[in-house]
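Why does residue order matter? Because the sequence determines the fold. Keep that principle in mind as you read this record.
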Amino acid sequence: MAKTKLLKAYFYIFGIGNIITSVAIPVFFGDGVLWYPRSLPTDLMVGSIYMAMGIIMVLVAKYPKKHKGFIDFIILSNILHAIVMIFYAQKPIHIYLDSGFIVTMGIIPLFLYPWPLRKFLTYNRSSDK
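Structure:
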């Protein structure tokens, strides 16, 4: 039960964090931490994805066990995003802050999700209806 409460807290904290940082990073930190060359369409695209992810994380926080697919998406997408960012980092701050934050966001659910409930690689036809 404690892990479920931590998983709920994770979704609230990182969800709100995603919403805030998708707006605050470009506005408050500007060119000091952003990637080059600057591209408004790219900044808006990445920001909108993390804004949407944050909103869904806050909504999922109430009943996280019911959203296994979304939790899988959070884990995989953030770990892969962090790996790509490490290879293309332009400054050490991108590796330590950006990639560090993103990989942390992807790894935490691995420890909090009740994996015995997951039942990987099983198929239940009744669940498709």
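The two ends are 30 Å apart (CA to CA).
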